[in-house]
Amino acid sequence: MPSNKPFILEVRANEYTMRGGNLNVPWTPDEIVADAVACAEAGAAIYHFHARMPDGKPDHRLQTYQYIVRRIKEQSNILVHPTLGAIALAGTAQERLANVEALCADPATKPHFAPLDMGSTNADVRDPESGRFITEDKVYTNTTKTLKHFATRIPQLGLKPYVMSWSVIYTRQIEAFMAMGLIDEPVYLAFNLAEGHSMAGHPGTIRGLTSLLDFLPQGRRIEWTACVHGGSLVPLIGAICQLGGHASIGLGDHPYIEIGSQPSNADVITWAGEFVRMCGRAPATPNQAKELLNIS
Q: What residues are paired with 133 via a beta bridge?
């Protein structure tokens, strides 16, 4: 039977996605702010974004993140989830968390989440048509020592860890951290499935998702969500509803032209909300998401 608990819709706004598939991927700070406000009005509870330059390149400057978070919080109550920029910014654990630390110094720019990707993986880009790799040396590195620092420091900053699992190995690391008291319940755990150009996660299929669910720590309070990096969440959202999960969806992962011509992130959230209601659940408000995840 489907769960009747509120369904958290998180927007994966842009990642590092270019505009070849959809011109509505938000890049500039003002585009991101306007997108977040529109998504909040459409029923999203959480907004995840990467700051970008006007040409789409990553923008890791602190002032850009300060501007975006401040403006989003001024105009909506959607929960804010920025990136650490971990692949593009090599460095120590302290250096990688520096922007988040600085954002938390001012209540006006303090987000609600910081990501905690619980493992390392090859992150090379592959051309799905030719089958050839476009890159061959990209590694997303998260050592256990780094993760221990993140898991300790993020709650100290008053933020909720956004705990990500890309494979069963990551989930086992999560269970180990919970056993050590480094990750508190209720855990907000995101399953990062992968399709298209990415092979870094389980396939974006029911089988790929359930193989991750099979290894969830038992007897623990866990609210899980799922995304499909490089692919569509449309084929999975019904199963997610039935299985009691939540959805992280947006143009950062997929252009979603199957739901309409050049949809915006708000259009995607509107579609997802309508689908969720047909499944017997209702999109969570930001306050309901806070209650589910024990965010003060």
A: 126
2-11, 59-68, 235-244: least confidently modelled range: 2-11
> Exposure pattern of 80-106 as b/e (b: 16+ CB <10 Å)?
bbbbbbbeeeeeebeebbbbbeebbee
Which residue range forms the structural domain that includes residue 144? 9-293
Residue 246 included in any domain: yes
Q: For residue range 112-167, list pLDDT tens digits in order.
A: 999 999 999 998 989 988 999 999 998 889 999 999 999 999 999 999 999 999 99
**Per the structure, how many domains does the chain have?**
1
Q: Are the C-beta atoms of 269 and 43 separated by less than 8 Å?
A: yes
Q: Does residue 3 sit within a domain?
A: no
* 130 Cβ contact list (under 8 Å, min separation 6): none
Residue 143: inside a domain, yes or no?
A: yes
Q: Which range among 2-6, 10-14, 178-182, 197-201 shows the weakest confidence by mean pLDDT?
A: 2-6
Q: Distance (Å, rounded) from C-alpha 185 to C-alpha 294?
A: 9
Give the residue carrying structure tokens 């590195």: 141
Predicted confidence band at 92 (pLDDT cuts at 50, 70, 90)? confident
